[in-house]
Amino acid sequence: MIYFDNAATTGHKPKSVVDAVNNALKFLSANPGRSGHKPSQRAAIAVYEAREKVSDFFNSDGPETVVFTPNCTQSINYVLKGDLGRNDHIVISDLEHNAVMRPLKSMNIDFTMAQVSLEDDNITLQNFKKAINQNTKMVFCTAASNVLGKALPLEDIGAICKRNGILFGVDAAQGAGVMDINMKDMNIDYLCIAAHKGLYCPMGLGILIARGPIKKTIIEGGTGTDSVNFIQPDILPEMLESGTVNLPAIASVGAGIDFVRKRKNCILKYENNLVKQLYNGLQGSNVVFYTNPNNTGYVPVICFNVNGYSSDEVTDILSKNGFALRAGLHCAPTAHKKIGTQQQGTVRFSPSVFNNANEVDELIIQLKNFKNYQKHY
Question: What is the CATH architecture of 15-262?
C-alpha cells in the first residue's frame, strides 16, 4: 500500500522515533514527577528534556511553557475554553477545522469568520483587520488548511494582534514540522500541535505551548504537585497536565524534532514538489483540482475530484489498487463550502518525506486510467 494520507497522521515513522519509544517502554516505565525513586527521576528528566527541545524548536519562552496533551484537539479546547468568556469575541478564518468551530459553538461564543484569499495574503490581512471589534479578545486560526494546503500569513496576523492588544492562537496541526514557526517572531500566544503529524511521533500526543497560564482549566487533579491543596496549580505546565502523561510518545519528541531539524527547509520543498508533480501530471485529465500548488504560500496538501465519481468512490477504488488517500470533508466544512465541495467532499493527497516521485507517477497512471478500474467493482 502506497500511503498518501500523511495529513491525517504520518504513515511512516523514522527509526530514531521508533527506537525512542521502545527505549522508553523498556527503561522509563515509571511515573515522572510522582516519586522520589531513580526510575521516576529518570522519567521526569526525559519529559523535561522533551520540553526543552520543543521550546527551542518553536522559540517559546522556555520549557515550562510546553504542555503535553492527548492530542491537538484537546490543546485547542484548553485554549478556547480556558481563556474565552461569555462576552468575548473571537476572530477565526474560514478554513478552520471543527476542533475550533465546535468548542466555540458549544460555548456560544461570538465569532467572526475572516475570509482567506487563496491568491493574495494582503486581502486576507485586510479581512482579519475588519473582523476585529472592541470586544475581540483573541484571533485563532489555522497555520495551514488541512483541505486546501493554504498557509496563512502568521507573522503579519500576529503583528495585527500585537497592535490591538489581542491574544493570538494557532492551530499548527498541518504546519508544525513543515512550516517555519517562530512563536516570538510571530507573536503567537498559544501554539497547538499534533505531534503525530509533522513531528513524526506516535498518535496520542498533542502539544500546547502557552506564553503564560490560561485563565481557567477544563480538567483538574492528578498533577502530583501540592497534593494537599484541593485547588488546581496555577502555574505551567502543571496547571494543564492532569493525570499521567504519555511518556513513551513524549520521549520520542526529541527524536522527531531532530529528524525534522536535520532536514529543515528541505521537507517543505521536497513534499511540495511531489504535490506539484501530481498536479502537473494530471493536467488535461478527468481530475479536477481546487488549488494550484505552483503558487507560493502552500503546504503539501492538495484536494481533487474525478469527474463522474464521488470522493468516497475514488478512494475506495484507489485503496483496492494499493493507494491510501482520504475522502470526505476532512472535518473542515467551511473550507469545502469555500470551494463548493460541501456535498461531495474531495480526495486529499498529502505526501511525506518517505514518499517518492515513482510512487506519485504510479498514482498519476491510476488516475489517468480511472475508467478502466471502475468496471471491476
Answer: 3-Layer(aba) Sandwich (3.40)
